[in-house]
C-alpha cells in the first residue's frame, strides 16, 4: 500500500525551472509565530533579504500586500537582488490610515523608480465588504496622478465582473483565480483549464485592458473540498500546467505564494498555511527541477512505524490469554493490524501538519494516542473473550463492574475516541470550511472497536443512554457531512463511514445486570 501511496510522479514540465524564471510570486516575510496581526512586529531587513535572495533565483518579480511590519524595506532590498516589485497597499475601513499608507507607497515609488513596477491599491476589499465601490475608486484616483508607474486594484474574478466600473480607474486588471476556493471547486487535474476559461471571460469583459492573474495556486496540504484534493503532487501539477498555458497564450501570472505561512492556519485551517512554492520552515524550494515528486517524501519512516505497530498487534494476539479464538477473531485481528499499519504514517503526518496551537496539538495527540492503543487493547480483549465495556462500567459507581486493568484502559480509550469523534463531527457541521477530516487516526481506532463489538458483544442487558445518544449524533452528523461536502470528497465519505461504524459499535453496548 505504501509503495502505491508514495510512488513519485515526474511531470513533463518542471514546476519551477531556474532557467526560465517565474513572472512574479506573492511574498510575505512572516515565519514561525510571526503574524501581520501583531501591530508591534517589525520583520528584520536581514530576514527579508534572505528570502528575496532565494526568490531572485526563481522569479523576476514579487508582489507584496502591505507596507506595514517592516515591508516598507522590500523595494530597497529587492533592488539589491534584481527583483521587480508589485507594491501592495493594504487598505480597509479606516480612511485616515488608508491615506497615510497611500502617501508612504507614493514615496517608495519615487525612491525606487527602477524597482517598483506597479502599485496595487487594495486587495479584496470589495470581497471582504470593507469599502464601497465609490470609496475604492476615490482612493485609486488619488494615487494615480502622483506616481509614474501603473496603478491597479486586486480582487477575485467574480468581483471584477460584478463591479466593472472599477476597471475605468486602473491601468490593468489584477484578478485572483484560486480554483480550490471556488464555490464548486474543480479537481486538480482540471484546475488549470478552469482558470484559463474564466480568464478569457474576464478578458472579454475588459477589452483593451491587460489582465494580470494576480493570484493563482494550489495548496499542498489540507482538507478536500468536493473533488479538490490538496497535495504536493497536485500543487506541482497545477503550477506546471498553468505555466504551460501562460507560455502558450502569452499572459502574465503571479503565483500565490512564495512561502508557506503557518500563521494563516489559525484563520483558514490547515490548508491556509500550505500554498507556498517554498517550505515555510526550512525556506527551501518544495519541487526542485529534475526531482520526482511524492506526496509522502518520508514514506520509509512511515512504513517502518506502521510495520512495528502491526507486529505489536499480532504479538498481543499470540500472547493474550485465549478463549478458543475462531477464524473470525483472527481475521478481525488481521484487519485491525493491517489498517493500523497502513494508516499510522498518515495519521502521524496529519498530526504534524494539521496541529496548530496548544488545543490543536492536544486534540490530534489524544486522537493519535487512541488510534495506537485501540487496536492493541481491542486485540487483547478479542482473544481473551471479553467484550467492549460500556461507559457506565468505566465511569459508574466506585464498585464498578470491570476490576480488570486492561478492560478499564480499553473503556477509557473508547470514551476518549467517542468524545473526539463527536467533537470532529460537530466541527464539520458548524465550522466545516476550515476543518480537516481525521479519517486516518479515526479508522485506526474505530475498526478494532467495531470488530470487537460485533464478535464479542453482549446481547443481554439494557442499552445505555450515553452510547445511544452518541450513536445517534454520529449517524446524523455523518449524513450531514457527506451531503454537505459532496460525494466527490472521499475524505468526507471515509470520515462519515467511520462515524457510522463507531455509532454501530456504541449501539451494541449493553449494561450487565447487577445481582
List the keywords:
515 residues; alpha/beta; TIM Barrel; eight-stranded parallel beta barrel; 18 helices; 51% helix
Task: Describe, in plain words, how this protein is organized in 3D.
- The chain has 515 residues and is of the alpha/beta class.
- It folds into two domains: 272 residues, Glycosidases (TIM Barrel), CATH 3.20.20; 209 residues, no CATH class.
- The chain is built from 18 helices and eight strands.
- Strands 1-2-3-4-5-6-7-8 form an eight-stranded parallel barrel, surrounded by five helices.
- α9 links the parallel β7 and β8.
- α13 runs parallel beside α16.
- It is elongated, with a radius of gyration of 27 Å.
- It starts with a helix and ends in an 8-residue tail after the last helix.
- The relative contact order is 0.08.
Describe the structure in brief.
The chain is 51% helix and 8% strand. It is an alpha/beta fold and 515 residues long.
- Please bin the fraction of helical residues: 40-55%
Poorly predicted parts: none
The number of helical segments is 18
Q: Specify the CATH class of the largest domain.
A: Alpha Beta
Radius of gyration from CA coordinates = 27 Å
The CATH homologous superfamily of the largest domain is called Glycosidases
Q: What is the SS-derived class?
A: alpha/beta
Q: Please give the oligomerization state of what you see.
A: single chain
Topology, element by element:
Blueprint: H1 2-5, E1 24-26, H2 45-55, E2 61-63, H3 74-80, E3 84-89, H4 95-111, E4 116-123, H5 125-128, H6 133-143, E5 151-156, H7 157-162, E6 173-176, H8 188-205, E7 211-216, H9 232-249, E8 253-255, H10 265-268, H11 299-319, H12 327-354, H13 357-384, H14 391-395, H15 405-430, H16 439-455, H17 465-485, H18 490-507
Parallel strand pairs: 1-2, 1-8, 2-3, 3-4, 4-5, 5-6, 6-7, 7-8
Amino acid at each position: 500500500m505504501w509503495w502505491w501511496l508514495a510512488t513519485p510522479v515526474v511531470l513533463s514540465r518542471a514546476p519551477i525551472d531556474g532557467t526560465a524564471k517565474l513572472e512574479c510570486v506573492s511574498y510575505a516575510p512572516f515565519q514561525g509565530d510571526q503574524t501581520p496581526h501583531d501591530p508591534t512586529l517589525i520583520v528584520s531587513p536581514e530576514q527579508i533579504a534572505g528570502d528575496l535572495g532565494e526568490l531572485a533565483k526563481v522569479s523576476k518579480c514579487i508582489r507584496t500586500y502591505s507596507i506595514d511590519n517592516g515591508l516598507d524595506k522590500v523595494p530597497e532590498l529587492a533592488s539589491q537582488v534584481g527583483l521587480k516589485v508589485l507594491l501592495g497597499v493594504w487598505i480597509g475601513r479606516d480612511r485616515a490610515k488608508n491615506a497615510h499608507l497611500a502617501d508612504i507607497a507614493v514615496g517608495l515609488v519615487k525612491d525606487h523608480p527602477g524597482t517598483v513596477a506597479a502599485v496595487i491599491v487594495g486587495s479584496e476589499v470589495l470581497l471582504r465588504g470593507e469599502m464601497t465601490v465609490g470609496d475604492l475608486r476615490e482612493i485609486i484616483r488619488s494615487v494615480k496622478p502622483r506616481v509614474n508607474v501603473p496603478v491597479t486594484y486586486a480582487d477575485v474574478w467574480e468581483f471584477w465582473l460584478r463591479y466593472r466600473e472599477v476597471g475605468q480607474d486602473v491601468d490593468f486588471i489584477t484578478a485572483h483565480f484560486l480554483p480550490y476556493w471556488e464555490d464548486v471547486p474543480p479537481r486538480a487535474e482540471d484546475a488549470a483549464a478552469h482558470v484559463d476559461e474564466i480568464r478569457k471571460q474576464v478578458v472579454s469583459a475588459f477589452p483593451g485592458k491587460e489582465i494580470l492573474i494576480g493570484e493563482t495556486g494550489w495548496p499542498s496540504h489540507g482538507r478536500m473540498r468536493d473533488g479538490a484534493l490538496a497535495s504536493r503532487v497536485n500543487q506541482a501539477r497545477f503550477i506546471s500546467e498553468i505555466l504551460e498555458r501562460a507560455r502558450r497564450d502569452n499572459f502574465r501570472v503571479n503565483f500565490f505564494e512564495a512561502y508557506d505561512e503557518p500563521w494563516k492556519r489559525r484563520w483558514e485551517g490547515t490548508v491556509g498555511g500550505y500554498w507556498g512554492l517554498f517550505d515555510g520552515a526550512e525556506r527551501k524550494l518544495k519541487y526542485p527541477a529534475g526531482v520526482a515528486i511524492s506526496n509522502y517524501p518520508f514514506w520509509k519512516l512511515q512504513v517502518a512505524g506502521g510495520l512495528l505497530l502491526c507486529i505489536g498487534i499480532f504479538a498481543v494476539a499470540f500472547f493474550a490469554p485465549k478463549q478458543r479464538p475462531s477464524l473470525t477473531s483472527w481475521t478481525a485481528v488481521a484487519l485491525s493490524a493491517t489498517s493500523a499499519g497502513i494508516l499510522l504514517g498518515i495519521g502521524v503526518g496529519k498530526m504534524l501538519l494539521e496541529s496548530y496551537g496548544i488545543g490543536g496539538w492536544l486534540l490530534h495527540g489524544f486522537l493519535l494516542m487512541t488510534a495506537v492503543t485501540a487496536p492493541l487493547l481491542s486485540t487483547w480483549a478479542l482473544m481473551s473473550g471479553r467484550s467492549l465495556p460500556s461507559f457506565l462500567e468505566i465511569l459508574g459507581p466506585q464498585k464498578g463492574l470491570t476490576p480488570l486493568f486492561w478492560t478499564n484502559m480499553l473503556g477509557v480509550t473508547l470514551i476518549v475516541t467517542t468524545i473526539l469523534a463527536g467533537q470532529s463531527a460537530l466541527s464539520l457541521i458548524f465550522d466545516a470550511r476550515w476543518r480537516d477530516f481525521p479519517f486516518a487516526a479515526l479508522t485506526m481506532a474505530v475498526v478494532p472497536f467495531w470488530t470487537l463489538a460485533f464478535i464479542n458483544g453482549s446481547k443481554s442487558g439494557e442499552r445505555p443512554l450515553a452510547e445511544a445518544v452518541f450513536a445517534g449524533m454520529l449517524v446524523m452528523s455523518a449524513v450531514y457531512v457527506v451531503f454537505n461536502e459532496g460525494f466527490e470528497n472521499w475524505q468526507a465519505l471515509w470520515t462519515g463511514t467511520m462515524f457510522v461504524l463507531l455509532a454501530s459499535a456504541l449501539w451494541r453496548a449493553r449494561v450487565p445486570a447487577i445481582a
